[in-house]
Structures are given as structure tokens and as C-alpha cells.
Amino acid sequence: VQLVESGGGSVQPGGSLRLSCVASGFTFSNYAMGWARQVPGPGLEWVSGILSDGRTYYRDSVEGRFTISRDNAKNTLYLEMNDLKPEDTAVYHCATARPGLVIFPSADFGSWGQGTQVTVSS
Fold it and tell me: What is the reported pLDDT for 40?
């Protein structure tokens, strides 16, 4: 499994970024995928997820501002981030959910990439 993220950067509050993740080494279309960030203690927490059937999940703090999508033909996962806030600052990792019954936000992590840094500050 290989997950390669891109698209992070530094923006001012209210700005936008689009993260991308190219996946390889597994059947992308069969997996629930998502974006996660590092938090003290627990480690990774799901920010947003998308099931193989296209249903989506968003953490309350990003609902209405972030949009997750997937292109199975390109084995690529996206996260459109709008109206960014300083509290969105983090390293964002593309991740697979462990196969089985996947229920966000408690889904187990399978694999994840190195991450891309998002910094929001004035």
C-alpha cells in the first residue's frame, strides 16, 4: 500500500487549499478512505471519510467547509478545504480504513501516508 499526499501549504485565515492523495498497491475502489490529522495522545483522528459507495463523513468542526471526494478511475482521493481557520493547522494524512464494517469516526485505521502540512495563520 502506498499513499502519497500533496497540496498542503500556508494560507491566511479564510483561504482555501485542495489536498490530493494518489493511492497504489491495493484496489482503491473497494476501500473506505479518509483524511486524518495528528492529535496529542490518541494519535490520528479522522477529519473526513468516504465509503466505497460514496457516502461521506465530516468532523463537526469542518462540516460545511471541507469536501471529500474520490476518483476511482484515477485512484485518487481529494479534500477541498475552504474558509480555513488557524485551528485547522495540522499535518493531514491520507488513510485507508481497516476493511470490514466501517463507521466513522470510530473506524480503525489501516494504512496512512507521510502527510502534508497545512498551516493557517495571518
Answer: 76
- Rounded to whole angstroms, the Cα distance separating 89 from 78 reads 18
pLDDT, block means (10 residues), the chain with 122 residues? 97 98 97 92 90 96 98 98 96 95 92 96 96
Cβ atoms of 113 and 36 closer than 8 Å = no
What number of residues does the chain have?
Answer: 122
Q: Pick from 30, 110, 114, 116: which is nearest to 70 by CA? A: 30
84: its cell numbers: 480555513
Give me 48's grid cell. 473526513
Give the integer Cα–Cα distance in Å for 19 and 14. Answer: 16
Which of helix, strand or coil describes residue 30? Answer: helix
C-alpha cell at 2: 502506498
Question: Can you list the pairs that 70-74 forms with residues at least 24 positions away whose Cβ atoms lie under 8 Å?
Answer: 70/28, 70/33, 72/28, 72/29, 74/22
